[in-house]
Design brief:
single chain; alpha/beta; six-stranded mixed β-sheet; 30% helix
Length: 520
Amino acid sequence: MKVEPLITLDNISVRLYDRIYLQNTSWEIKTDENWAILGPNGSGKTTLAKALFGGVPVVRGSVRHHVKPSKGSQETPEKVPVGYASPELFREVFERELLQESFRDFSGRIDEKTTPRDIVIQGLPKGACEEKDFEHDLGHFADKLRIKNILNRDICAVSSGELCKVVIVRALMRKPKLLILDEPFNGLDSRSRKDLKENLDDLIQSGVRLVLITHRFEELPTGITHVLQMKDGAICTAGEKEQVLSSGVFSERNREDGSDSFTFRDLSQSSLLLKETTPVGGVGVTGTPEGRTLIDMRHVNVRYGDTVVLSDFNWEVKAGENWLILGENGAGKSTVLKLILGDNPQAYSNHVFVFGKKRGVGTSIWETKRQIGMVSTEFQARYPKEISAFHVVLSGFYDSMGLFRTCSKEQKTRALEWMKLLGIDHLKECTFGSLSYGQRKMTLIARAVVKSPLLLFLDEPCDGLDRDNRKKILSVLEYIGRNTGTKLVYVTHHEDEILPCITHRLMLHQGKIVESAKIR
């Protein structure tokens, strides 16, 4: 029996900002195929996926959806129903929430809140939530991804990993024929990754076709039938999964970008890091004695209504210590970091001391942030997209969301050196919004380390990075944590990303500490 096509890209080119991408690209997805799109950061994977449903403007060629109109209809063929979930949608969520907060403040409705249920509804066609099966379907998908209990929770009490699941549920609620998931495993704990992988296979069995973008081979569901590899904005390999992955052209052991020369030895010889034996540029930073208490949190409690995020939390970080924070999605890991940074207002009603100063007493939030570098999914989603990558890195000297001061020649040289070390100096004139997700992450890592902070907060720093960039970042972070005065507070859900320089481990479960110990 002949297999019909589902969507065809015929010799397309798309425009993003002032550039043309995917020039003369052709690709066809058939009704029995499920695809994985692989390739290094910046290769065009997300742009290709968006072209399937009109997420980017196609300026040449055509995109054909092979769906026949309903019986008796005089209309032209309809579009394939598509569900789409991506880390990029976090920006939309946070921008909308910021606008809602402004409206609430202006109107005096300060007790109102946004919930995950609201986020799902906001992403659906008008009237979808009034359909008779809406509540049943929402409950079904939320139960499958284990977020049924958070649907009516304040969005402030929802972790980035839980928000990933909410965005996926929103895509599923569109009842798609084609489901496009761009790095859907980002931020998920091991159990959630296993659940999602199994659920994707169930969806494939039910007849939903899947296009999955990922950088990790272990995340490929068994139902994936075909693999497409991209490089430099073009398709370089496409075909059946077993044939492509076993070929000499592409395998898990092959280099993703043709460059695998970045080593720990290179770092030790770097002129940039050779001089980074102690942090610079901050109050009380230089000459930090071993044993000095940097963070002191005692009997901290954080709640939103009836939702307890942290309960009787006690933690102390001293100079010279590198900490790993572990725990399932929603355990409270990101909340701990926000309290220290002063980004959670409940820090000021709790016993939270940072560098010997109580939050809100005797020092401003900016004086504290000058000594802390930060990388997180939420921060990445909130950062303005019109700023050039070079200015994003420079803004790290001032802890600003954008660059509003004139930088010295030394600062500019230092920022460019970091970009060169991370292999992103060729992106310096590109706007932050035009970069791929992984390129944005690399840029924000450079921003976090450029000032050599006393503490470096890293919340899932390798999410969205290809294999070679993960290796590069892990090497840089290991060197910093082991050989410089900058110490790490590191959050990850991947065992293979735990750094050897880690000296202490903090384990959280449902807002409570279950382990706090020195490990080496």
